[in-house]
Write a structure and sequence with these properties.
The complex is a heterodimer of chains A (659) and B (78). By secondary structure, chain A is α+β, with helices and mostly antiparallel strands. Chain A has 3 domains: 198 residues, 4-Layer Sandwich (Aldehyde Ferredoxin Oxidoreductase,  A, domain 1), CATH 3.60.9; 215 residues, Aldehyde Ferredoxin Oxidoreductase Protein, subunit A, domain 2 (Orthogonal Bundle); 167 residues, Orthogonal Bundle (Aldehyde Ferredoxin Oxidoreductase Protein, subunit A, domain 3). Chain A is 41% helix and 12% strand. Chain A has a 6-stranded mixed sheet. In chain A, a hairpin with a 4-residue loop joins strand 7 and strand 8. In chain A, helix 2 crosses helix 22, helix 19 crosses helix 22 and helix 22 crosses helix 25. Chain B is of the alpha+beta class. Chain B has a single domain, classed as Beta-grasp domain (Ubiquitin-like (UB roll)). In chain B, 17% of the residues lie in helices and 22% in strands. Chain B has 2 helices and 5 strands; from the N terminus they run E-E-H-H-E-E-E. Chain B has a 5-stranded mixed sheet with strand order 2-1-5-3-4, covered by helices on one side. In chain B, strand 3 and strand 4 form a beta hairpin. The longest helix of chain B is centred in the middle third of the chain and has 7 residues. The chains are: A alpha+beta (659), B alpha+beta (78). Chains A and B meet through helix 8, helix 9, helix 10, helix 13 and helix 20 of A and strand 4 and strand 5 of B.
């Protein structure tokens, strides 16, 4: 494939050996690159009994098939590995400029196995690929270490760096891998895997060219989208608070409806995902009080977490590589009551919701401080916030007492003690040590009585969106090989995407009564399958999930792929590639003893018992019953979720695994 | 002829649209023509924040093939 480099770097830290290996053309044809290439490599090369924190596990840094081709919103890089959090497939992704940097070193992916005796970092440019001593960076936070590495690399042009902070070094199972000043590929415990290998950083400074089949067509497509996004920037009358009003209206409506993805362009461009907080709370999409509360508990949230309050603090906006949306920003922290940080990345919705309404925390400044603290430590804010919520509810119910909290008063909304608790999690001190591995491990330590407060799916804490509002989301939470991810799909996202415009078998989203939409149905099964395949196609391409949120009529992934490859394939054919990637990830879980259909949502998130008020009042869902339609649509065994042999044969996966 | 996608508010008749929410209009059609086709009074369309491709638009705005008309500004996910 013209837009891919055709090679991978294989690094063995135990032996100190590095090889550049050519990848068969069929792999790109059948799986694209990115997560597809990663799924193929990991399935083949990680033994079933591999300890996720041992030498046999492999950590892969993968780029995407469209990265570097000028395809818009296609600059994401992913990390793939066996997750120490779930025991199955693990991945996380991030924006910035690291994805093209991988390809500029002449490879599509870097796969790392073994364990180094001492801390090292991997350095690659056009001529060099070597392991260097990282002892002097070990112990530094992700931003300090990155800044030092910029200088020490001695290049005229700043290299791209992916690295762990103290959380990864200390093997926190909820740690991630950072780049560009604390942006983080956060999920699946990928930071702990990197820490277990004593690999502090990957530093990339290559300059190789990335080809594109039809540059002219790609440039036209890219310009067309940039023009649309620019025009869609919100008019002055649209304030952050408007979204609270709209959320309340949506929450009150008895029906849900497909919404135009175009409407996401302006708000994402102006406020980033932070705009979602007030909307999500009001419409019933944002979990509150450890998933047990309702908007009535956080009446102050629309004021305190109004996205305009963040917008006012912006120092500068930024975009990831090749992105015309530009949802990121650096915001001012000067004068904050906590710490002495000067600025931070604008927190994402997930971070705000998690450390705000989920903990009944009214204090925005504390959330900003925690955002920077966790970014520097390299710890996942979703898992960390769920862990803090768990601890607070245990404390409230007398299951954790003052002697165990080291004197902290873990009350709802007690932001000063919440900060101290997070600091302890990062340092792995006292109770923080128990929470630094997520809620499943914490509940194993604090006892069975606390399990009902531990919100996780298969060991991973869920992203902050409500399955009680959106059954399809609940299905993705339990069927996704890396469970609990909010980014794979939902009924709301499905309407935004309008996948039926590019895929002939994808059902058209309809206006539906919310109560009826919570009942298991075949249409939702097809929609969840289509969403999962499309998400994998995006990951193979190196795309961003915000691309899908603005709709297939704006972000024309299929056209970008054809411009980059010259393949001229249809949407249906590309969706088959997505399906192949998803099957490989499911096979990985089967190989490693995680049966895909064995996962469940916490009872509370299923609405057992149901909430007593708010938009999701009385709602109870059965995602496992709905998942049967999902498995059937995928061609998996309905009872186990394992891919059927005829499905694998039809997709040619058995042949791919022989390559 | 051009085709535009129209995502109407709940409860609004979709009879004029095909099953994938597309509406056929003459080549030089404006937003006003689309509103007339779906029987949406202009003041009501304004109240619903009518937009073309995510941009709030006046009824005189000319439509292009593939445009998307929506009546409710919203964002999801994060």
């Amino acid at each position: 494939m013209k837009s891919c480099m055709g090679y991978i770097a294989e690094v063995d830290l135990t032996l100190g050996k590095i090889e550049k290996t050519e990848i068969p053309k069929q792999i790109y044809d059948q799986l694209l690159s990115g997560k597809g290439l990663g799924a193929w490599y990991l399935y083949k090369n990680i033994p079933a009994d591999a300890d996720p924190l041992g030498p046999d596990n492999i950590l892969g840094f993968v780029s995407g098939a469209l990265t570097g081709t000028n395809a818009p919103i296609c600059g994401r890089w992913s990390i793939v590995t066996k997750s120490p959090l779930t025991g199955g497939w693990g991945d996380a992704n991030c924006g910035g400029n690291f994805s093209p940097a991988i390809k500029r070193c002449g490879v599509d992916a870097i796969f790392i196995k073994g364990v180094s005796k001492k801390p090292v970092y991997l350095f690659m440019d056009d001529d060099t690929c070597e392991l260097r001593d990282a002892s002097e960076y070990w112990g530094l936070d992700a931003i300090e270490a990155e800044e030092r590495l910029f200088v020490d690399a001695g290049k005229v042009k700043k290299p791209s760096v992916a690295l762990i902070g103290p959380a990864g070094e200390q093997l926190s199972l909820i740690s991630g891998v950072c780049n560009e000043g604390g942006r983080i590929a956060a999920r699946s415990g990928v930071g702990a895997v990197m820490g277990s290998k004593r690999l502090k950083a990957v530093v990339l400074a290559g300059s190789q060219k990335i080809a594109c089949h039809d540059k002219k067509a790609m440039n036209e497509l890219s310009k067309e989208l940039a023009k649309r996004i620019k025009k869609a920037y919100p008019a002055g009358i649209m304030k952050g608070s408007t979204y609270g009003i709209l959320g309340a209206a949506m929450g009150a409506l008895p029906a849900s409806m497909p919404l135009d993805g175009s409407m996401n362009m302006g708000p994402l461009s102006k406020w980033g995902s932070s705009v979602n907080t007030v909307l999500a709370i009001k419409k019933g999409d944002g979990p509150i009080k450890n998933w047990g509360g309702t908007p009535r508990d956080v009446k102050w949230a629309t004021k305190n977490y109004n996205p305009d309050r963040l917008f006012e603090r912006e120092l500068n906006k930024y975009s990831c590589y090749s992105c015309s949306l530009g949802c990121g920003a650096v915001i001012n922290l000067k004068g904050l009551a906590y710490g002495n940080f000067e600025h931070t990345h604008k927190p994402e919705y997930e971070t705000i919701q998690g450390f705000g309404p989920l903990l009944l925390n009214r204090n925005l400044e504390s959330v900003l401080y925690l955002n920077e603290l966790l970014n520097r430590a390299g710890m996942d804010t979703i898992s960390a916030a769920n862990s803090v919520a768990y601890a607070i509810e245990c404390y409230e119910n007398g299951l954790i007492d003052d002697s165990q909290t080291n004197g902290l008063k873990l009350n709802w909304g007690a932001h000063e003690d919440i900060i101290k608790l997070v600091e302890k999690m990062i340092a792995r001190e006292g109770i923080g040590d128990k929470l630094a591995d997520g809620v499943k491990k914490a509940a194993e330590y604090f006892g069975a009585a606390t399990e009902k407060f531990a919100m996780h799916v298969g060991g991973q804490e869920p992203g902050f969106h409500e399955p009680r509002l959106d059954l399809q989301l609940g299905v993705h939470f339990i069927t996704e090989p890396s469970p609990g991810k909010h980014t794979i799909g939902s009924g709301g996202d499905y309407g935004n995407m309008a996948l039926w415009d590019v895929c002939t078998w994808a059902p058209v989203a309809k206006v539906e009564n919310k109560k009826a939409a919570r009942k298991p149905n075949e249409g939702c099964g097809k929609a969840s399958a289509a969403s999962a395949y499309y998400a994998m196609l995006i990951d193979g391409a190196g795309g961003c999930y915000y691309g899908k949120l603005i709709g297939t009529n704006n972000w024309k992934l299929i056209s970008y792929l054809n411009a980059a490859t010259g393949w001229g394939k249809s949407g249906d054919e590309y969706m088959e590639i997505g399906k192949r990637i998803q099957m490989l990830r499911l096979m990985f879980n089967v190989k490693h003893g995680v049966l895909p259909a064995s996962l469940e949502l916490p009872k509370r998130i299923e609405g057992r018992p149901p909430l007593k008020d708010g938009p999701n009042k009385g709602a109870t869902i059965d995602p496992n019953e709905q998942a049967k339609y999902h498995w059937k649509e995928l061609g998996c065994d309905v009872a186990t979720g394992a891919p059927l042999n005829e499905t694998l044969e039809a997709l040619g996966i058995n042949e791919l695994l022989e390559l | 002829m051009i085709r535009v996608r129209v995502l109407l508010p709940p409860g609004w008749s979709r009879k004029m649209l095909d099953e994938r929410y597309w509406l056929e209009l003459k080549d030089d059609a404006t937003l006003a023509d689309a509103l007339a086709a779906v029987r949406m009074p202009r003041p009501l369309a304004k109240a619903f924040f009518v937009s073309i491709n995510g941009t709030f638009s006046s009824s005189k705005e000319k439509l292009n093939d593939g445009d998307s008309i929506a009546f409710f500004p919203i964002v999801t996910s994060g």
